[in-house]
Each structure stands twice: as structure tokens, then as C-alpha cells.
Design brief:
Length: about 160
């Protein structure tokens, strides 16, 4: 008896999902890298290269992109290391990049190269570690929380 295995067609929808995930990951990594570069001396060069890439050869769009990137940096620098501001700038940039990456495959390839190059030249962020130790004695209570805690019970 001869067994014939069916021809299995590749699942194109799975490939599209994989591509979208890759682009989302690139948008996330790219936004984080660009925001990290905003606080370095290399920002001037990074801003110009990214603005040129975002503009796709249009001089007017390049000036607009450079101005937008400068404003994002000013928001980031102007608020004394406020993590929420950094996260907001990164989230905004990530959303813009994600849309552009999905609509322009050429941009995706060039942006990936730029992100890799920038990543090699900026210092790695120091790992953020917080250690807490609470000791209660004589019937005391220890409360450790990631946000402010007060003694007012919720209503």
C-alpha cells in the first residue's frame, strides 16, 4: 500500500501575522533606541538621519520631521527625568513608526539598519533595580507599595 501525503500549502496569514509582529518589535525597539539617543551627544546626527529617512527625499517633510523630533527631545529633556514623559514620548514615536513601517517596506529595511547602528553607539541603559526591606517589630505593620500610600481607607 502506498501512502500519499497531501500537499500542504504555506499559511500566508501566519506569515502576515509574523511580519506584523516583527514590525511591531522593530517599532518598539526603534522608539526606545531613538528616545535613548535623544539624551546623548549623538542626537544631532541621529535626528538628521532619522528626519531624512522619515521624509523619503522630500525637503519640506524632512524639515518638519526634524522639527517634530526636536520638540519631542525638548519635552523629554525639559522635565527632569520624568519617566512618564519618557514613556509618553516613546509611545508616541512607537505609534508613528509602527504605521510607517507597515505602509512602507523600504522604510522598514532602512530603519532597521539605522536602529542597529544607533544602538551600537549609545550607552546601554543601566539596569534599574530597587531593593526594599521592611521590618516590623512589636506588632507593627509594614506597607511596601509602588505608589504613594496613605492611611485613608477607600470609600
Amino acid at each position: 500500500m502506498i501512502f500519499v501525503s497531501p500537499i500542504v500549502q504555506p499559511d500566508r496569514s501566519a506569515r502576515k501575522k509574523e511580519d506584523c509582529m516583527d514590525l511591531s518589535e522593530l517599532a518598539q525597539a526603534g522608539a526606545a533606541t531613538v528616545v535613548a539617543a535623544m539624551t546623548t551627544d549623538a542626537w544631532g546626527q541621529v535626528r538628521l538621519r532619522l528626519a531624512r529617512l522619515l521624509a523619503g527625499g522630500d525637503d519640506q517633510r524632512q524639515h518638519e520631521a526634524a522639527a517634530d523630533l526636536s520638540q519631542a527631545r525638548e519635552r523629554l529633556i525639559g522635565l527632569d527625568d520624568d519617566e512618564r514623559t519618557a514613556a509618553g514620548v516613546e509611545a508616541e514615536l512607537r505609534g508613528q513608526l509602527r504605521e510607517r513601517l507597515r505602509s512602507d517596506p523600504n522604510f522598514a529595511a532602512e530603519f532597521a539598519v539605522l536602529v542597529e547602528e544607533i544602538g551600537r553607539h549609545i550607552p546601554a541603559a543601566a539596569p534599574s533595580t530597587i531593593n526594599q526591606r521592611g521590618v516590623a517589630s512589636r506588632g507593627g505593620t509594614v506597607i511596601q507599595a509602588g505608589r504613594d500610600v496613605n492611611g485613608i481607607p477607600p470609600r
